[in-house]
Description:
Two copies of one chain form a homodimer. By secondary structure, chain A is an alpha/beta fold.
Amino acid sequence: MAYQRKTRNLHDLAEKAGVTAATASMALRNSPRLSEAVKERIRRIAEKDGFTPRSYNRKQENAPGKRFSHLGPVLFLDNSVDETDPIGAALLAALGPMMNEYGVDFQVVNQRELAAQPETLEKFDALFFYNDPPVLELIPERIPAVQVFGWEKQRRNCDRITANDGQIVALAVEFLRKAGVERSAIFWRDDIVRIPDHPRITRFLAEMNALGIETTEFRFGKYDTDFTGRLKQYIEAGSERIGFFGFNARCGVKLCCGLDSLGLLQKYSPTNVIVCDNSVLLRDFWPNPALIDLDLPLMAKRALEMLFWRMEQPGIPEAFVLQAPRPLQ
Amino acid sequence: MAYQRKTRNLHDLAEKAGVTAATASMALRNSPRLSEAVKERIRRIAEKDGFTPRSYNRKQENAPGKRFSHLGPVLFLDNSVDETDPIGAALLAALGPMMNEYGVDFQVVNQRELAAQPETLEKFDALFFYNDPPVLELIPERIPAVQVFGWEKQRRNCDRITANDGQIVALAVEFLRKAGVERSAIFWRDDIVRIPDHPRITRFLAEMNALGIETTEFRFGKYDTDFTGRLKQYIEAGSERIGFFGFNARCGVKLCCGLDSLGLLQKYSPTNVIVCDNSVLLRDFWPNPALIDLDLPLMAKRALEMLFWRMEQPGIPEAFVLQAPRPLQ
């Protein structure tokens, strides 16, 4: 008798049915994108083996998954050009399973592809984008959209969600105040922060200086070669009780690399360095700096539901959402 | 043969079953609040007549209604003291059917009742409130909450939604600019606007004055007896091309009543008077003033879903939502 593996999870089921896990999942969700014959065949295998995954049981009770399945497809506009954008990557990682759960088709298109082939747009009913992609003007305003982060609302018929900078600054200030720092700097890269007087920068400077802690901006460029030299200079220019605030994950990486190459990461990282954005980019620095978690998966979920509402009811009043960061651990 | 009316809608079904339309609706939605016997009896009548209303068909596919039915009960805190608050009334009118749809229990408690019997709170899992009720401090912060309007976020574990005053002011300024007014005033009652430097007031003054239209505040008290006299004085003090901006529905009512008693409503209302809040209080003035629709039902829906998310996942980062007004018709 041949060994017969038990159907314990979706992958086992897919293997037995000779389909991908995604197809098996769609069959169990009764997706309209599969033929009835295929669904029936897969369901029969699942049934025979008594396989009813937990999540499908839950879905039958509450059925949130089917709620928007008549909508789509959604275009996710990927901004990355030369380097992967950690915001885009984190949003995508959260959106993929959600889209599956909601049963809505979506496709990732890079902004360069879109600029080269604007006719791609015709396939899509909605747009999910982040920051301020320059190709936005190619996309007709009748297409409902949602924007995550960015400088200003870029278009009509579009909701927007961004992080609450007032509360981000409050966390950073409180962290550095507790550390007893005597001076501090916020580190930002000028091709990333294209918002003049970004509130995260101006409020941090104002609040730290109001506490009597002399605080300045440490601005740098993407291709600067003297970052570490300037950092050394800054550190040696006064009290060594310094607070370091990284504007976002990429600025934080530069800061931590700089401190590391000066042999100062051990000294400063756990107590005096705080970075806005709990990104995978920063988890490998040891000892860990403090990270402000913006909860991008939740932000993606709020953005997505706003987009679905707008797709269902075009013309509803727009929402601008400020999401608070998670409190520090 | 007796005439037998066909079951064409919910009211026909309710009549045949000898129940209210609400009960018939609950039966078709399989509400846990009815006994199985009652539901079965009503369903059998519906089935016999081949009556499956459209909305229930839709619901079986998408099932949004059941999504949060495991939550509740929710306390709706009613702020009204001496007069009915039109905001509270509009929110309640929208929330009632929504709560029914979601299958979540809720109860309206007036702030005075709550102050007299704080033990009422023990029954509730969540709080829905608007503006800044003084009794808020009685309510433990572990209870998840959502706030509509109000000055500032009043508590932890609470999301908040309010109107986007920048866009409200833009609509009012554009309306009065098009009317060609040469001076204008914003009318507000000082016991309603308890936010110092309310953005709706300060931005309106700034933007109108920047356009070269001399603009002032017209502040009044709830019990002022000289409102009409002061209004007459203001109108006679310069050019008759005046723009009138009512801060909200109640201020707008006072303004329209004042113009009416001076015999000037006909002259000014349709072209020169604009009021923030499309309230039922203002629809009876003829000719109609322009009304800025804040879409309170949508605001209530967004607030409610934020509250449900917070009930399901306590501790998720808070959202502060600014909702745009609807464009003027």
